[in-house]
């Protein structure tokens, strides 16, 4: 008799940053159940994050439809399968209506503490599962061709809303201040005209910068980040991707909540603008503060997540 395959349904976020944070939980589940095959449900922006995962049997891209009909479509797609486990990080009713031996449903709502720790606790992990990325050999070879030597400073000057964006001229000033350390800037940003428009002031003021934004897949971006000496960027999905890729990462926070969404990784740090969390304008974050933090992270071989005090 052929044993039934063990299949796990993993429902994660639409947004890239939240999806990256969830990769630690997915990796922990894959280690806990080494014989299982995984189906990942996510939004279109995050789908490329899981393409190179060898344990990912299928990716279901959930595109929003009116009247929440995308959830009905997903239920119809998933109902024929008898799942060993359903892990729903969206806190929906889906997991309660599918045939599954086990169900883990993580409810939403504002809770104190970092999001990555909340997910780990919800699934019963004592140690916080750190995010990770998957890349193919082809993606790593392509990254090596584009960034053949070391000494690259990755800049992430965009974000999903303008309140989180550090002024472009400060990114330029910062990159120039780091030139004596033999760091050449690489500018990364997401797909679409709006992202490129936000990155253009930095690209225009740094003629030696390499423009690698806009079109690469998430796996290719992760492979590029692995080639970089340091990433400095706004609170964004790209920031979380850099930290998950193992790149020394410095996240810049203004009105967004570092207490919940600080970058997580072995070599990740962040700096905050002065003022009450959730209301501090990022324009209050000085170049001097970011430069000091960048120099510190470059001087350390192993950096755990912590906040460096702002002005």
From TrEMBL:
Which keywords does the record carry?
Glycosyltransferase, Transferase
Give the originating organism.
Answer: Gluconobacter kanchanaburiensis NBRC 103587
The family database entries (Gene3D superfamilies) matched by this protein are listed as:
Glycogen Phosphorylase B
In Pfam terms, one family for this protein is: Glyco_transf_9
SUPFAM superfamilies in alphabetical order: UDP-Glycosyltransferase/glycogen phosphorylase
Return one Gene Ontology term, BP aspect.
lipopolysaccharide core region biosynthetic process
The protein's GO terms of the molecular function aspect are: ADP-heptose-lipopolysaccharide heptosyltransferase activity
Q: GO terms for CC? A: cytosol
Q: What protein am I looking at?
A: Glycosyl transferase
């Amino acid at each position: 008799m052929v044993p039934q395959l063990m299949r796990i349904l993993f429902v994660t976020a639409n947004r890239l940053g939240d999806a990256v944070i969830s990769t630690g939980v997915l990796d922990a589940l894959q280690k806990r159940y080494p014989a299982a095959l995984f189906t990942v449900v996510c939004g279109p922006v995050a789908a490329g994050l899981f393409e190179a995962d060898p344990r990912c049997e299928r990716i279901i891209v959930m595109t929003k439809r009116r009247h929440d009909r995308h959830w009905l479509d997903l239920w119809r797609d998933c109902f024929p399968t008898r799942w060993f486990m359903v892990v729903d990080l969206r806190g929906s009713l889906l997991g309660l209506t599918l045939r599954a031996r086990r169900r883990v449903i993580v409810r939403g709502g504002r809770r104190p503490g970092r999001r990555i720790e909340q997910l780990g606790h919800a699934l019963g992990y004592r140690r916080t599962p750190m995010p990770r990325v998957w890349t193919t050999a082809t993606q790593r070879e392509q990254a090596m061709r584009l960034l053949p030597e070391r000494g690259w400073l990755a800049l992430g000057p965009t974000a999903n809303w303008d309140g989180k964006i550090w002024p472009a001229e400060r990114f330029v000033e910062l990159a120039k201040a780091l030139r004596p350390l033999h760091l050449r800037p690489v500018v990364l940003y997401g797909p679409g005209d709006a992202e490129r428009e936000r990155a253009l002031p930095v690209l225009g003021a740094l003629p030696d910068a390499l423009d690698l934004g806009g079109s690469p897949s998430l796996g290719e971006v992760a492979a590029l980040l692995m080639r970089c000496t340091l990433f400095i960027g706004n609170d964004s999905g790209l920031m979380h991707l850099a930290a998950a890729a193992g790149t020394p990462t410095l996240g810049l926070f203004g009105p967004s909540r570092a207490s919940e969404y600080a970058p997580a990784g072995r070599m990740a740090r962040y700096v905050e603008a002065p003022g009450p969390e959730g209301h501090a304008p990022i324009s209050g974050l000085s170049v001097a503060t970011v430069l000091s933090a960048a120099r510190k992270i470059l001087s350390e071989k192993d950096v755990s997540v912590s906040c460096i005090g702002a002005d």
